[in-house]
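Data deposition worksheet. Section B asks for the primary sequence of the deposited chain exactly as it was used as input, without tags or linkers unless they were present during the calculation. Section C holds the resulting structure in token form. Section D is free text for depositor observations; keep each observation to a single sentence. Incomplete worksheets are returned to the depositor.
Section A, Depositor: J.P.
Section B:
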Amino acid sequence: MPIGTVSEEIVHLGITNFRLRRSIEGRKDEIQREERLQPEGSVLKTRCSVSPALVDQSFLRADFAADFVLPQLRRHLLSFCLTGAILIGAGATLGAKCPGTAGDNPTSPVLVELFTSEGCSSCPPADALVEQMDASQPVPGVQLIVLSEHVDYWDHDGWKDPYSSSSLTDRQNSYVHALGLKTAYTPQILIDGTVELRANDAQQVSEMLQKAGTTPKVPVHITSATLDANPSAVRGHIEADGSSAKHNADVYAVVALDHAESQVSKGENSGRHLTHVAVVLEITKVGKLEKGKNFSQDFQVKFKRLQTDPMPMRVVAVVQEPGSGKVLGATLQKIAN
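Section C:
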């Protein structure tokens, strides 16, 4: 999709959002006038004081539009605008070639972590945004390495996310503590473990991704990675050059599904078909990188296989400072299953 088309669609959706808001506000004013004319104790004084003729037509009610239609429109508009802003800011298109392939200029890795849940109705637009980042790679000279980390604190609300993990909830809570945040929430996007992206600030998204791409990184490589079918595990070897590292760091191996999908039958997303990218199955600490030294280590990551059909996998190596959570380096390798 050309940039001009993206811009036109953003404007069109913005106008639609504005018109819907004006319609809702007008209906609320009408309801308030009706309410003032009703006697005290009137049975017509429902939560939104709607007239009897509208009781069975919920799609016309002002409160329904305000509580459901408008938030849904905002979520989809937000996802579209964020993606468009990133692409426009980077001077790319949705069909841009993925950096890091043979013949491209060297790229700087940036780790994008999305904490999400299939039980959260606000998460699908964020899932779609991360999928778009992964597919289009919109920032020149930057390789966005995305991870979808499904937390488990939504599992009690009607739908148990098949990809959720208490260890990923713990990882998110560690970030909350390190960044001095008040609480964990979904969807939450973190860049290189240090920057929390605000979903309502498209300009920040573009600026932070480009800024993270200019930060010097520790070179790290996955020199081999193979999948063992029984038991389910990934074996491989990680190397990192710590000559430029100013602090000691932990080295992690992350195993993720290349993509995944679910048909949700309960909870906030009931009836929706959800898709995800780079769904984390397991994170294992491989060893420690000492400042000024090189790192070379074999690894094995065991994981629970969620389905019998073969699925492409991803292995991500992450070099990360303990305590602060700052990501010093990362790399990605895909494995055919």
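Section D:
The helical segments are 3-37, 62-90, 123-136, 166-179, 202-214.
Residues 3-77 form one domain.
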